[in-house]
Design goal:
By secondary structure, this protein is of the alpha+beta class. The protein has seven helices and 13 strands. Helix content is 26%, strand content 24%. Helix 2 crosses helix 3. It is globular. About 23% of the residues have low confidence.
């Protein structure tokens, strides 16, 4: 006879339910969590935590992307007669021409004076400056909008002050009418016994311009004249620009009135920086005529 004994009824497993609520930007996710412990219970909780983390970081990332997208760069198309310092002043570029050159070195090249009409320059971020008044800020906002919509009108704007250019097609070789040593001033320091041109008092690095349209007949070292450029004009006369620190043109090149040909300097036989300017009947030394009288005869005010 089988031994008597009590058989214990196995207890059924009891499961408890609980609800995990995760906030995701105002919406609630309710997930049942089983009372049993182990990897199966931990997995839903980890998924919720990951979802919440993504929801929390999505908004800042999206905001940063929108902020970066809103930062724009102003593009400027170089016009005839432009040079970097002029563009920096007219477009109110913080940091001046050096900032423009640094931002556009790959497009301009190794010589900051070599820019040509049509070249696209980046003028940096369009951020309002606290140093400018509200009126100036409004004027700046209006200025960038016009060239993009009316390029022909912008190209017809004068590239130099009214006192240095006129409708005759002639202009001063530099944006300064301050004359130092005049023409035919006697002195033993000159081999001819007198000054064969006129000196314009300007610091090193000042842009120099062709006084009229013409063809470059020589550009390079000129002995006592240092770095020089000689240009032949339609009337048969030649203009000479001496003691330059750098050249922007080469022999055989055609230039227009007011086009930048280089920068002033103190190369050659000089005591300080200035532009020595001559008008000649031939491209060579010794054929000089009065440069001031020549410019005035073409309607250009000098001195």
């Amino acid at each position: 006879m089988p031994a008597k004994g009590k058989h214990r009824r196995p207890k059924s497993l009891r499961f408890t339910r609980s609800i995990a609520v995760a906030g995701t930007g105002g919406a609630a996710l309710a997930l049942p969590l089983m009372g049993a412990t182990g990897a199966h219970a931990a997995t839903p909780a980890a998924a919720v935590a990951q979802h919440v983390e993504k929801a929390a970081t999505a908004a800042p990332a999206e905001k940063s992307a929108k902020t970066a997208k809103s930062v724009k760069t102003k593009t400027y198309a170089v016009k005839r007669g432009d040079y970097l310092s002029k563009i920096a002043e007219e477009q109110n570029v913080g940091g001046g021409w050096k900032k423009i050159y640094a931002d556009n070195r790959s497009a301009i090249g190794s010589d900051p004076s070599l820019i040509h009409p049509g070249l696209k320059l980046s003028l940096g971020k369009k951020a309002a400056s606290a140093a400018h008044s509200a009126t100036q800020s409004s004027a700046k906002a209006a200025a960038p909008a016009k060239p993009a919509q009316a390029t022909p009108a912008a190209d017809t704007a004068p590239s130099a002050p009214a006192s240095t250019a006129n409708s005759s097609g002639y202009t001063l070789p530099v944006d300064s009418s301050t004359v130092g040593t005049g023409y035919k001033v006697a002195g033993s320091m000159w081999s001819s016994g007198y000054h064969t041109g006129v000196d314009f008092v300007v610091p090193t690095g000042t842009p120099l311009k062709s006084i009229a349209a013409g063809t470059v007949v020589s550009a390079g070292w000129g002995g006592a004249y240092g770095n020089q450029v000689v240009i032949q004009h339609a009337d048969g006369k030649y203009s000479q620009y001496a003691h330059m620190s750098s050249l922007s043109v080469s022999a055989g090149q055609t230039v227009t009135e007011g086009q930048q040909i280089g920068l002033s300097g103190a190369t050659g036989n000089v005591t300080g920086p200035h532009l020595h300017f001559e008008i000649r009947t031939t491209p060579d030394y010794g054929s000089d005529v009065d440069p001031v009288a020549y410019l005035r005869s073409h309607g250009v005010a000098v001195g």
